[in-house]
Design goal:
five-stranded parallel β-sheet, about 375 residues, seven-stranded mixed β-sheet, about 15% strand, single chain, alpha/beta, 13 helices, binds zinc ion
């Protein structure tokens, strides 16, 4: 499987998916176990753990890992890891589940996995908010989700015997072992991952292509897990990516695949997390733009780049590629950034996010230097039918 690709985080691609006879006996055992229904985020986490996207995690975090991650951005064994992957339960369930096996179910009650609940523990939500999100304000969507969690955490390994059923983007769903197989088959050794939860405009296209000039392939990996209600819906974004790739990218150099993680909006900490997880999918490089995974004004524009300095070179394994805000410059006659263009702002075609949304909602095409018309048309149609 390696074929010269980067090793997974911690060295081994974790596989917590049971198959065949093992899956049948787990499903049978699950019938008589106490049950815990998972909400959207833990359900997404369960899938990410099962397929190895969260390697080296084999389950939800126990206290030592949880506390070490919150405080030091490392698992208890010292390996970098920036976001808690924790499962909250009521105090009553915590007492009932500790030291036992529990069947994890989806929201409809369908059993998916067996968890060995190693321990149940208290946690400090405010400390997690401060350390992970850099704010205790519940106006931050990640903090609000944290405060809404139940009062205890349970940690322990999981074994998944039934995959969560997905009905959308089936042709673009690939587990880490599948993206790795595609990369190996294409003969790519260096791959740059691009995280997005937004439509791709010229600015993003430019930095993707700058990165692609120096590596073998691009993994365009849009997040389709739980997001805020005001983010552009995933099906619209996917239609935009498909139109953009068909018209402007060499087919043999790009893989479009969905990233089923839930969004936490943790800014800098989430940038590290996104990089580590993409390494598990086989990426050697990862693009970190301005305000990566941020929300409103909680983080400085380049905080998500600066945080990478807190790790020694090579500790993360994956190489971050940092980009500044880019724009079309009429004087340069090309896309550029402050690093490459000496001209004043008047020469730059730049529009605020708010202005672009207004234009699209009114059926007005943004300038072609800002958005590809193929993308703008899809967004206009989506705004009009909303
Ligand atoms: Zn210029």
């Amino acid at each position: 499987m390696s074929e010269g690709l980067i090793a997974p985080h911690g060295g081994t691609l974790i596989d917590r998916l049971a198959e065949g006879g093992e899956a049948e006996s787990l499903a049978e055992a699950a019938r008589s176990l106490p049950r815990l229904a998972l909400g959207a985020r833990p359900l997404s986490d369960l899938e990410m753990i099962a397929v190895g996207a969260f390697s080296p995690l084999e389950g939800f975090m126990t206290r030592r890992d949880y506390e070490s991650v919150v405080k030091d951005m490392r698992l208890a064994n010292g390996l970098p890891w920036s976001l808690p992957v924790a499962l909250s339960v009521s105090r009553e369930d915590a007492g009932r589940f500790e030291g036992k096996q529990v069947a994890l179910t989806d929201e409809g009650g369908q059993a998916l996995a067996v968890m060995e609940v190693e321990e149940a523990f208290e946690y400090d939500k405010r400390a997690e908010a401060r350390n992970v999100y850099r704010t205790e304000e519940d106006a931050h969507p990640g903090v609000a989700a944290l405060y809404a969690q139940a009062e205890m955490l349970i940690g322990g390994k999981v074994r998944v015997f039934r995959r969560q059923r997905h009905e959308d983007f089936l042709e673009h769903r690939r587990d880490p072992k599948e993206t790795r197989a595609v990369f190996a088959e294409k003969g790519w050794r260096t791959i740059v991952g691009f995280q997005t939860r937004n439509p791709v405009h010229r600015a993003h296209e430019y930095i993707q292509k700058c990165a692609l000039e120096t590596v073998d392939g691009l993994l365009l990996h849009p997040l389709v897990g739980a997001t805020k209600d005001d983010d552009v819906p995933a099906p619209v974004r996917m239609a935009c990516y498909e139109a953009l790739l068909a018209a402007y990218y060499p087919a043999g150099r790009v893989l479009l695949s969905v990233f089923p993680a839930a969004m936490r909006y943790a800014g800098p900490r989430e940038a590290i997390f996104h990089a580590i997880v993409r390494k598990n999918y086989g990426c050697s490089h990862f693009i970190v733009g301005r305000d990566h995974a941020g929300v409103r004004s909680y983080y400085g524009t380049y905080d998500a780049q600066h945080i990478f300095r807190e790790f020694a070179p090579g500790e993360l394994g994956i190489t971050p590629m940092f980009f500044e805000n880019s724009f079309f410059c009429r004087a340069c006659g090309s896309m550029a950034t402050a690093k490459t263009c000496p001209h004043p702002d008047d020469d730059h075609v730049s529009l605020s996010g708010t202005r672009v949304r207004q234009m699209l909602a009114q059926g007005e095409m943004p300038p072609p230097e800002f958005s590809r018309p193929e993308v703008a048309r899809i967004l206009i149609a989506a705004y009009r039918s909303a």
